[in-house]
Each structure stands twice: as structure tokens, then as C-alpha cells.
């Protein structure tokens, strides 16, 4: 399971097109959230970590959001995104380990969570929380989706329960919303929690 923390593991998945998690579109709950954001939010600093094919980043960009950063440590999806959006600012495409981002360099108003939490080794979940809290500005928001199911497997995606998430996240976040997602993609209906958390 340790190899999920290595860029080579994910690069190989993209090269072999072994990307069963990929919906081929922006996640419906995140699209709905983006669609209700006010016009004056278009310059807010937004991070999408472990973005993969980054449909959410593309959608934000298409809607006029100018300060969106994509992070993934596999080069393949970043290169594919850059080919799809040749005008996207290259400095906002970061090929790096999320856990190595420095809060002194990066601070965000929002971080969008889309299959990143479930892709990392569960032993790093507390580390994930600490890093998220570091990278968010005071009262910054972590918004997205978590799997509300136990996959019972030794490779991603790794699931969990609402009770576990509440216990973990409340150490660094105020929980505004953590409820079953009513508008998930059909392939994920009934297995996702929509979260909206605020950094303490």
C-alpha cells in the first residue's frame, strides 16, 4: 500500500489508462457548488490537489476563475491538462507532492477535494488534515467529496465513515456541512458525503 504515495505508481496508472475512478467530467456536486459562487469570487485562490485529469480545474477556468492551482505528482495528467488548456497559466500547474507544498509560498481561500483524500494511504490522513489547515487562509474552506463506504481493499480508493471523518476533521476544521451527497454522479450515488469545512 505504500506505493500509492509514489508518483511512479500514479504515472503508471495514467500511462496504462487504468483510471477507473475517472468520471470523464466535472463532478456534479462540485459543479453545483462552483455554479453558486458569487461573481466576486472569481479571483479567489483555489487549490485542487491530486487533481488528476482536473475537470474541476478546467470548469473553473472556463467560468472565469483566474487564480486556480492544480497539483499532482504524476506528470501525465498535468501534461494532458496543459494540452487541453494551452492558455492556462503554467505557473499554476504544479507537478509536486502535495505534502511538500510550503505554506510560506502557498495560501488558498478554497481547496476542492475530489478523490484526493481517498487516494492517499490512510495512515497519512492526519498528515493530510495538518497540511490542508496549513495551506488554507484563516477561515478558508475545504469543499468536496469523501467516500462514505468501506471498500475493504489494499489499494485506492480508500473509504471511511462519516463518524471517522467527523472525529478526525474537527481537530482542524469547523464542520459546516458533512452530509450524504444528493446529486452525485450515477456511478457514485449513495456512496459520497459532501463536505464544506472551515479552517479553525
From TrEMBL:
GO molecular function: thiopurine S-methyltransferase activity
Keywords: Methyltransferase, S-adenosyl-L-methionine, Transferase
Coiled-coil blocks: none
InterPro entries: SAM-dependent_MTases_sf, TPMT
Cross-referenced PROSITE patterns: SAM_MT_TPMT (PS51585)
GO term, biological process aspect, one: methylation
Name of the protein in question: SAM-dependent methyltransferase
Species the sequence originates in: Psychrobacter pacificensis
Gene designation per UniProt: tpm_1
